[in-house]
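Worked problem 6 (solution included).
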Amino acid sequence: MSSTFVAYLIASTILAVTPGPGVIYIVTRTLSRGRQAGLASVAGIALGNLANATAASVGLAALLAASATAFAVMKLAGAAYLVFLGIRALRSKPIPAASLVPARAGMRLFADGFLVALLNPKTALFFAALLPQFITADASPLGQGLVLACVFVSIAACTDTLYVFAAAALGPTFAQTSASRSVGRYVTAAAFFGLGLYAAMAGRRTTH
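Solution. The predicted structure is:
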C-alpha cells in the first residue's frame, strides 16, 4: 500500500468522522424518526456523494488528458480551496440541529438525502479539490479517481452509520450535546489545513 493511499485513507477518515452539517442532518432525522429513517438518509447521501465524486473524477481525467499543466493548476487551486475550507470551518459557528429539515418517511427519506448531496455544488467542488491531491501519473487518472471516490464515500457511509446508531441509542441526550459540534469544527479545520499542506509539499517534490 503506497504512502499516498495511506495518507488519503487517514485524511478521508478524519474528514468523514468529524461532525458537520451532513452528520447533524442525519442525526436529526434519526432522533425525529428513528434508526431506519437515519439509515435511509445515510444511503441517500452516500449515493449522492458518489454521483458527485464520479462526475469530478471524469472531469479531472479529461482535464489531465487535455493538458498536464491545466491539471497542475487545478491541483493547486484545489489545495487553496481546501485551505479556504479550513479557514471557514474555524470561523463558523456550530450548527443547531433544530435548523435542519424535519424527516419524512420511507423512500422519500432516501430521495431527500440523495438530492441534498447531489444538488449541493459545494460537494462536487470538494471532490474536485480533494481527489487531484492523491492522483499520481503512474496509473489511469480516471481509474484512480473512481477508486478514491468509492473509498471516501464508503468511509463516510460507515461513520455516518455509526452516528445513526449512537443517536438512536442516546436519544434526546445526543441532540442536546453541542460539544461534539464545537470540537468537530477545529478537527475539520486541522484536516483541511493538513490536506492543503500535503498538496503544497507534493507539488514542490514534483518540480525537482
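Discussion: The chain has one domain: 3-203.
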